[in-house]
Every structure is written in C-alpha cells, then in structure tokens.
Amino acid sequence: MTEVTADSTRADELRGRLADELVAEGLIVSKQIEAAFRTVPRHLFAPEAALEEAYAQDIVVTKRDEPGITISSVSAPQIQAMMLEQAALHPGMRCLEIGSGGYNAALMAELVGEDGEVTTVDIDLDVIDRARLCLTEAGYTRVNVVLADGEDGCAEHAPYDRLIVTAGSWDIPPAWVHQLADGGTITVPLRMRGLTRSITFVRAGDHLVSRSAKICGFVKMQGAGAHAERLLLLRGKEIGLRFDDAWPVDADLLKGALDTTRVEAWSGVTVGRMEPFDTLQLWLATALEGFCLITVDGTLDTGLVAPVNRIASPAVVDAGSFAYLALRPVDEATVEFGAHAFGPDAAALAEALAQQIRVWDHDHRGGPGPRIAAYPADTPDEQLPDGFVITKRHVRVIISWPAAGQGVPHNPTEKE
Fold it and tell me: pLDDT tens digit string along 144-193?
C-alpha cells in the first residue's frame, strides 16, 4: 500500500467516524446531510492540518490577522451540520453562501445536486483563491466562487432559495432580502447584544420572522457589515466589560467598583452541569437594561471575579455598579445560578439579576424560546410587535418571549 493510498483510506475512516458522531449526537438528522458529510473530503479543505485535526469536531484556522486573531477558518463540523439542518437545502435549489472556505460550499453542492447551483462569496482575495483551489481539487468546479463584500450579496447569480451566512453578522443588509426567491430563507449567525444565534428567517411581508434559532459562534463579518464591540477595561487588562450596542452613560463611575466588597445573591434555581441554558442568556439580555458581557484575561486572572465562563458571561451595569451571572456547586451533578456584584449598589443589582433568573426559570425554561423578527430600520415603533427592540443600521430586531406559563415547567426533582 502506498503512502497516498494509506492516507486516503485513513481519511475515509475518519470521515465516516465524524459522520457517525454527528448523527449520534443528533446534530445530523436528515439522510441527505449525512450522505454529504460522508462524501465531501474535509481534509482537502484543510491541507495545513493533520488528518485527525481536519476531521475533529473543531475549527481549522486558515488565516489570522496581524495581532493573531482568527479571521478565516474551516468551521467546526457540528456547527456546519446544525446550520445545514436549519436551512433545509433540497435538490435543484439555488443557494448563496456568504463567507467562504470551500468545504461548506461543497456540502451545499452535494445537497442541491447537479440541477442546483451554489455560489460562495468572500471579501478576502486570499480566502477566495484558497476556496477555489480546494473546491477544484475536490472536484466541485460547478460552485461559483466570487470575490465580493457579502454585504451586497451576489446579484449576478440571484435569486436564491437559500442564503447561508458563515460569518458572524451584526445586521441584515437589504441585499440579502432582495435577492431571495419567493419562499426563500436566510440562515445567519446574528449577533444581538453580544450573543450570537444562528437564525433561519422566512419572509413575512415587509419583514423577516425566525423559524429556528441555535446558539453558535463565528468569526466576525468584515467589510461594510463589520461592527466592533466596545470594551471597558477594569483592573488594568484583567477584566473587561463588552458592549455590543449601548455604552454606559458615565463609564468612569465604574473605575472604583472593584475596590468594594463583592456581594453575592443566589436564585435557588439549579441546573445540571451538562444542561444547556442558552435561553437564560438571551432572557437576561432582553430583561436587563445595561446588559453586557464580562470577560477575564486568563493570563491575568487573580480570582477577583468568577463568572460562569471567562470568555463571555452575561453581566449588567447600572451607574457605578455591575453584576454578572455566577454559579456555585450544589452537588457533583448540579449547580445553582446566582449573581456577584461590585459597587455602591451591588446588593440591589445582584438581587435584580437573581430575580430575572427566577423569572426565566418559572416562565421560559424548557420553553420554545423567543420569536425573533427583523423589520426595516425605518419601521416606526407603533408598527412593531411587542418585545425587546434592538435598532441596527439596516433592521430593527424584535425579540418577543411567549406569555408566562407557556414554557415547560421545570421540576427540580427530575434528573438534570
């Protein structure tokens, strides 16, 4: 057996194992998507990675900027499977991918077949050249590979039955909507108050309505659609508060907050250590004014703060005080949600956060999650449905939660 043959055999084994894992974990449901994952040679789109790395459930970084931040990657297969399940591609469809890499476009090409058409665009010439080369080597020459700013879509090959965005987007530009065919959908990792959800939108008259929403993370959009968070640093560079939209009226008031004693408030709401709680994060983002995310530099961490995770945990700022979501162990399998707070009004702010955890537990835990809609940015308030409104450059996003009691009641005696 030659080295090339051995590598090919090993790649086939790893590709099959990856598909098996994604099916077992419920991330792949449809037979068509399973077949695509078993067919497309992922390693050919990640030549810089070892075979085992190419087929691992992780991203493969393909480009970094000067400071070392990832600006392009082959996305994690579990995220790609999830979004393809959301988008529901069928044979004969015309599809647009915004944010290229090659592998996902190849999966899409398998799903739409010879009678369909896939166009993939990216703003970065290096990424486009690499995607075109990889697609050609893997045999997917029928994919249209276009250098363009994704903000503008790609009118040349429109209209599209499915538009899939594979870069973290803060907004939904008009071109995406205008280039949809009748009955078409947009699946986009949309950032709302710093939290990203992969949302499949369907058109409903002059606006978009969510059909599904899943937690995810993506490399941020570049070009005209780029939107930078603002970072408020505390205690040197150890602790930061990340604001996606609203900025504190007087950020200087927080400078002395960490010199006060930490206050804790516990909600009585427990969760299994492996139980997802992404609807809690989104609930807090819509229920608390001054919402932001707290991040801790792991290399500088002194233990002064202890959020749920150091990369990004829900937090809230009110004047000179701030609080964040925290956990404490109950037993080996269970933890309790609560809040830590600093500043002159720490006790009240911590209790306010803890109370919203209780509201989520009572009204929304286990429920369907919110309905998310996107209206044109010039839509007046009186024409918007009830809900929390986030005004962006192109759209106004409305996050509407079901009425209290429509969620699935949580039974704390059940096994988490």
Answer: 999 999 999 999 999 999 999 999 999 999 999 999 999 999 999 999 99
- Whether residues 211 and 81 share a domain: the answer is yes
Residue 400 pairs in a beta bridge with 371
> How many angstroms separate the CA atoms of 23 and 31, rounded?
10
Active site residue ranges: 75
Query: Residues 171, 150: contact at Cβ < 8 Å?
Result: no
CATH code for position 165: 3.40.50.150
Residues 6+ apart with CB under 8 A from 280: 314, 325, 337, 357, 360, 365
Q: Is 381 among the domain residues? A: no
Domain edge (last residue) among 339, 363, 387: 363
Same structural domain for residues 315 and 180?
Answer: no
| Claim to verify: residue 80 and residue 173 sit in the same structural domain | yes
Same domain, 70 and 203: yes
Give the chain's domain count: 2
Q: Are 105 and 144 in contact (CB under 8 A)?
A: no
Task: Count how many Cα atoms sit within 13 Å of the Cα of residue 56 in the half-sphere of its side chain.
Answer: 11
Residue 50 falls within a domain, yes or no?
no
Q: In terms of DSSP bridges, do strands 395-400 and 388-391 run parallel, antiparallel, or are they unpaired?
A: antiparallel
pTM of the model: 0.91
pLDDT in tens, 324-383: 999 999 999 999 999 999 999 999 999 999 999 999 999 999 999 999 999 999 999 999
On whether residue 14 sits in a domain, the answer given is: no
pLDDT at 276: 86
Identify the domain boundary among 331, 363, 395.
Answer: 363
Lowest mean pLDDT among 40-44, 96-100, 149-153, 408-412: 408-412
Domain enclosing residue 255, as ranges: 230-363
Domain for residue 290, yes or no? Answer: yes
Q: What is the pLDDT of residue 167?
A: 92
C-alpha 275/C-alpha 282 separation (Å) is: 16
